[in-house]
Predict the 3D structure of the following.
Amino acid sequence: MRPSDPVAIITGAAGGIGAAVARRLSLDGFGVAVLDLQEAACRPVVESIEQAGGRAIAVGADVADEDAVARAVETVAERLGAPSVLVNNAGVIRDNLLFKMSLDQWQQVMAVHLQGAFLMSRATQRHMVELGWGRIVNLSSTSALGNRGQSNYASAKAGLQGFTKTLAIELGRFGITVNAVAPGFIATEMTRHTADQLGMTFEEFKASAAERIPVGRVGQPDDVAATVSFFARDEASFVSGQVLYLAGGPRA
């Protein structure tokens, strides 16, 4: 059974999917650590959670920095309690075609998505092992299957799927499940930025995407939050090492 006062850490939680996940897990009874690069950027999300009656703190940390991650996780343990749920959501995009992509663009994406998930998972798993209960949810993407102009992002998201399955094998005996959510088109500032790059309005971009999605609409951050909520439940204790494509249809 999950701890009586469960605590969740959500990375990249100052906005978009991360903020929606933080609010949803708070409604599910978790104390929530809203973690992003700048602590100040997390405070509006913390305030909205507190106004709804939840417990939350803002934590600033670069998930690709080993020392910063260690300090952040200990801060959470001291201020909220031992973390039993980790949602590795932090991410960046540095899109470019292969022949134009710089080494820096490749390394930035790998550092945040893959190194960040590794460092955060390693730092939090010891608390989960001590509790005998834990949930790690990694945010992958349909881009893991390949996407033009995203060789860095697609590789990182595919890597997260292998990371997920390996941790599920290693940590299952300690009562810890590890799963991944792979969203398709989700309406966030990140997809708005892509629309800007393509010279389209955000509404045009969403309408164009919706035409190719069987359910006839694009996804919303709350769709992802609901899926993470499922993986974080006691009832999902027999679900581990899975990648759930959240794309509005059978073909991601």
